Amino acid sequence: MKKILIALLSVTILTSCGEEKSTNSVEITGNIKGLKKGKLYIQKVQDSTLVILDSIILNGSSNFVSNIKLDSPEMLYLYVDRGVSNSVDNNLLFFAEPGKMTIDTELELFLAKAKVTGSKNNELYLEYKDIISEFNYEQLELVKDELMALKGKKVISKEDNIKKQDVLLRRRYLYAANFAVTHSDYEVSPYIALTDIFDINMKYLDTIQKSMSPKVAKSKYGLKLKEYVADRKKEE
After folding, report:
1. Three-state SS at 149
2. Of 216, 48, 210, 215, nearest to 229 (Cα)?
3. How far is CA 29 from each of CA 20, 34, 171, rounded to the nearest angstrom?
4. DSSP string of 100-136?
5. What is the DSSP letter of 153?
């Protein structure tokens, strides 16, 4: 009986260790159609510098697998080394989170054809970026009108144009802040606050920070947001 209990205890310990390991890592499998030979790198930003977490050599197959230690959801990059035919279209930004993820794309349209699954944070971030791209388009149109006016090819009111740009910027910031609060159960919330609206009015950042769930508050970006808000309060 004693031996049975010891055996059961050993199995329990091994199982718990396995579970702990899985919650602190991400397994990324994927396929890059058209790339049979080359190198891939999984990277992250650390102290304002891109560092390599994993390097993968492809030789005969476009499929790849990568296992990375990841304590909490974090924005990573999948970089493809095209060799002599390198391109600006070679670094895919994706929101990784512990568990299993897949990345499928094509070499010729590396960013445009990319499909990332297995990460709710990435799904939300893409949803957010889709709306932000609409704000960016409106901004470009206003800037375009301004440049056309300077060249004498269009007549506009400079004051009205500036007002429209200011209103558009406020709308963009308010949308980002509202998105972060609405999705405060996910790490994408503090990430957006830190990267897109870090200079927004303090009351909005404070609201985002206080709305974070306990899990998100303890994550990498949650802790960074807390530190950033505290520093800004000291300065103000």
Report:
1. helix
2. 210
3. 21, 16, 38
4. EEEEEEESTTTTTT-EEES-HHHHHHHHHHHHHHHHH
5. S
Tokens of 202: 């303090």
Return the number of other C-beta atoms located less than 10 Å from residue 121's C-beta. 22
- The per-residue pLDDT for range 138-172, each reduced to its tens digit, is 999 988 888 878 777 787 788 888 899 999 999 99
Q: What tens digit of pLDDT does each residue of 12-60 get?
A: 433 444 444 446 899 999 999 999 888 999 999 998 899 999 999 999 9
Tokens of 221: 């970006």
In terms of Cβ atoms closer than 10 Å to its own Cβ (0-12, 13-18, 19+), residue 149 is middle
Cα 58 from Cα 38, distance rounded (Å): 5
Does domain 2-117 correspond to CATH entry 3.40.50.1110? no
Q: How far apart are the C-alpha atoms of 178 and 120, rounded to whole Å?
A: 18
**Is there a contact between 193 and 206 (Cβ–Cβ < 8 Å)?**
no
Strand pairing report for 99-106 and 63-69: unpaired
- Angle at which helix 158-182 crosses helix 120-150, to 10 degrees, equals 180
| Domain definitions of the chain by residue range | 2-117, 122-235
Phi-psi region of 36 (alpha: psi -120 to 50; beta: other; left: phi over 0): alpha
